[in-house]
Amino acid sequence: MSESLSKEQAKKLVDKYAEDAIRPMKNHKGFLPWMGFLGLVMVVFGYAYYIQLTEGLGVTAMRDYVSWGLYISNFVFFVAVSLVGMLVSAVLGLAGQKWVKPITRVSEIIALGFVMVAGLVIITDMGRPDRFLNLFLHGRLQSPIVWDVTVITTYVAISTLLFILPLIPDLAFIKKKMKDMPVWQYQLYNILSLGWIGTPEQYKILHKSIRMLSIIIIPVAMAIHTVTSWLFASTLRIGWDTTVFGPYFVAGAFVAGTAAVIIVMYILRSNYKLQDYFTDHHFDMMGRLLVLVSLLYAYFNINEFLVPAYKMKTGEAVHLHTLFQGAYAGLFWVVQIIGMGLPIFFMIFKHWRKPNNLTFIAVIVLIGAFLKRIIIVVPTLLHPHLPIQNVPDEFHKYMPTWIEVAVTAGAFAMALMIITILLKIFPVIPMWELAEEKGITEEFEKYD
Amino acid sequence: MSDNNSNPKSRRDFLKIGSLIGIGAVAAGAAGYAGFAAQDGKEGHGGEAESALSDSEKKIKVLTEDGQLAEIKASELSPVQKDQYTSALQEQGREGIPGKHWVMVIDLARCRNVRACMASCQNAHHLREEQHHINVLRMQESEHTEPYFMPKPCFHCDNPPCTKVCPVDATFKRQDGIVLIDNERCIGCRFCIAACPYSARVFNWFEPKNHEEDEDLLYNVELNVPQKKGTISKCLFSADRLREGKLPYCVSACPNGVYYFGDLNEDAVTNGTSGETTRFSELIRKNAGYTLLPELGTKPNVYYLPPKNRMFPFEYNGKTTLEDEHHV
Ligand code: SF4
Ligand code: SF4
């Protein structure tokens, strides 16, 4: 099969793939302390959540007016980040962008980790988590929450498939190659590789299924974030009652997800010497992608804020005043300028798309994206149609309590744990796809 | 519920339920009585006058399913399952009172912020101090207009955004127009709070007031008592009082005649202070009655009469103007 590569070169290349793919799975240095740290955060989370369960949601800073706060922002953020799986592996993949190959698995892992935790995060916001099953016993199709539950479950299912299917040839390969793995791991690979022996027929089926899933996941991913935006847009509140929320949220999600992938790429590259897969070129391209999606997001921001600001309807004026020069102005301008405007500007220059610089920018963009969710949720609730009166002072403002912060940290720890474990168990380098690209599939399959 | 006379068994069942509710109401929360109902065949009739009322011959007032007050002998009470009644109360609560369309009219010219309505409401529904089913707001339309007091209950909208978004049908609109909450089903997502444009809903962020005393009470969905931690509460138009043929708590508590309450289908509303009954349509027409934020399409069932020819001047905290206050 290999025309350009000699047999020897091909074997060497497969050797290298195998070694590079297995290295992150075997290298335990740093793994345990890291998991220990995450575990510690989870313990604090458990304690905080226990207090919340026994004493009630009143241990948060939420009250009758700001009745949604950090927890809902977390939910929106987690769903947002998870959209990147669809962006990278489906949209870019289908668009024939060959360079994304090594990045697809990273983004699928991030997507899985975040969307799974998104489902759990929403439970932390419930006043009666003990009645969770009511959603299924008494679920009503009219409610956007039920749509959300439906599409998120679907997205988890399809994302899992889109993660596992492309793993099949690699798992069959590693099963042969990694002799010293524990029994459970061997069993797992054995089951997941579904009796793969690498016949052309099997390859054909695999390609077809992946392609199909890539197509299906696009509308599902759009749906999860559009429906999430409808939790807000379906109400009659100033600041939420807008038609632009669906695409505005989806664009914002692409920004957050792209930034997250850049960060994880960087960590893998520097910790496990994977610079041959996550090359400078990849960072450059991801930088360009981040500029593109940020510009798209900026466009929706202009629509979202400038048009109402031009009209200054009474209610909108109060809301916009809070954002532009009132209580939330600091946060708002930091997020808009430092979290969106400046990054776009800097990333135009190639110098800022180098791995170190780009990762720095990505961290800022991701923090900005998180804070942006709070700006979307809270200020609107502080300005209902009718005045807030005859209630204690704390009803007029919102500043998260340590319980909310701990629960939030716990959610992040949980997502990072899932991502770490997936990276530990499964090869992050899509070996067979790289081999295919080089035209050495045969060598890859025959390798032993 | 009332049209199943053809089935004697179920009629009897419902009489039992009626009796029980009556006991609950008459004994005013004495949980000890709440597990008993009349024995077969003898329910609902007072019986002849017996002279010496020994313990077993003591009569107890009960309310039957159709709202009639009746008496039965205490000895004829027999224990029944509690949850059976809770679900019967739920069923009755979800159904509503047939043929009615409740409506409230609030005369802003008469309100002087006495807050007797707020107090009686909080008392009836076991609410904490900061929880308002009805809240008297200080309003001012614009800079050069006069401020006024505006009591604000839930508007029991005919197109209620709050019930639409509820994922589990825990808040619902029933046939007589009342929007209620089932706090045994509510999952505490607070989507309905977000959806209500009138901020009419409150949440039990902590253990509710009286939660220990109320623990054994039967849950009455028409009163939303006992309140439950992690669930929603809001104005219920005093559905429990309406079932007894009485006016809502707030309406009867007001000393200044602010509230009218009645049935839109009969076109009649009664003033809670004077007890006078007026034609609803005429009251609205003569006084230019209006609803709040009609442009939202919620179709409220609470009407306001504008604060014209006021009975009392505006005064709050010694001031006659509204400064530094956020208003519409
Ligand atoms: S006022 Fe609010 S809570 Fe009451 S029915 Fe209307 S939307 Fe629902
Ligand atoms: S808080 Fe309760 S009543 Fe309100 S929408 Fe959620 S489940 Fe329904």
Keywords:
heterodimer; A: mainly alpha; 0% strand; B: 328 residues; alpha+beta; two-stranded antiparallel sheet; 8 helices; 15 strands; 18% strand; globular; binds iron/sulfur cluster
Largest sheet of chain B: 5 strands, mixed
Q: What is the CA–CA distance across the termini of chain B? A: 44 Å
Secondary structure category of chain A:
mainly alpha
Provide the succession of SSEs of chain B: HEEEEHEHEEHEEHEEHHEEEHE
Share in β-strands of chain B: 15-25%
In spatial order, strands of the major sheet of chain B run 14-13-12-5-15
**Count of helix runs of chain A:** 18
What count of helical segments of chain B does DSSP give?
8
Quaternary state of the chains: heterodimer
Strand content of chain A: under 5%
The whole-angstrom Rg of chain B is: 21 Å
Q: What's the story with the biggest beta sheet of chain A?
A: none
Radius of gyration based on Cα positions of chain A: 23 Å
Structural class of chain B: alpha+beta
Write the H/E string of chain A, N to C. Answer: HHHHHHHHHHHHHHHHHH
What would the principal axes of the Cα set say about the shape of chain B? globular
* Chain-averaged pLDDT of chain B: 82
List cofactors, ions and other ligands: iron/sulfur cluster
General form of chain A: globular
